Amino acid sequence: MMRVLAEQVLGFDVGGSKILARIGPWRERIASGRDCSPDRLVDIVVGSIARATAAGHCPMGIGIGFPGLVADGGSGVRSSVILDGWSDVPLAALLRQRTGLPARIENDVNCWALGELAKRPDATSFLLLTVGTGVGGAIVLNRRLWRGRSGLAGEIGHASVDEDGILCLCGQKGCVGPLVGGEALCAELAINSHLLKERIRSRDPVVAAAIRWRAEALGSVVANALNLLDPGLVVIAGSLAPAFLPGVKLKAGNAFAEIVANTRVELSCAMPDGAAVGATHLLDGEQA
After folding, report:
1. pLDDT over threshold 80, residue 102
2. Of the candidates 157, 180, 189, which has an alpha carbon nearest to the alpha carbon of residue 243?
3. Contact 242, 267 (CB under 8 A)
4. What is the pTM of this model?
5. Which residue in 81, 155, 202, 218 is a FRET match for 176, CA 20 to 30 A apart?
């Protein structure tokens, strides 16, 4: 029996519009969608293993960062509001049946936190935010993920900021994620995500204004989280992180002065594929 090392694991970041795969320096991006079924995802993983092997790598394990609630121990997926058709799916077993490799599943934002830990050997505790299509979060305390009793700790995107607000995919109204995320931005501006990024790069004043109030709204939620956790570090990741950083940092400054004085708000060190990087660490030391 051999122990699996992170550099031998093929890590995946599964999203609502794309899937990222990575092992060592090799990586690929695969177009996907909300209709990505369990069978489809297994097929994608099998294909990536073949392509990674052809590129000279030899995957010894599979790590999956998944957008949903994961079963205890990382054996499968309990549910997802991002992808359709996922309810109590024994994904690790399905992958092992098709590939013969050990597999472990973790929430995608938690995976990003693991990727951040790998890039920050001196960090002890931090709050991680991901800002892209929506807003996600994870908590690291004393270099360990804090999942909470139900496995949902850190879901800052579901902090309610308006009881009469828009309906979230989780079934509640007024969650900050669908209010401030990229999907809401694109809908307000009547543009797609590609054009949104172009207009951010060109410093379009209309886009800048639309981002500013959203970033500040998210920053106010972060200020509350700082008063609860006092982690010393807030990490912002995701495709919209650079644009959101100033506004989040500004309003996070409304936390207790002593906490603010001892807190850094920074961009992720693990971009652009931190969740895939973190997924490669899911089987650290496990026997294959």
Report:
1. yes
2. 180
3. yes
4. 0.94
5. 202
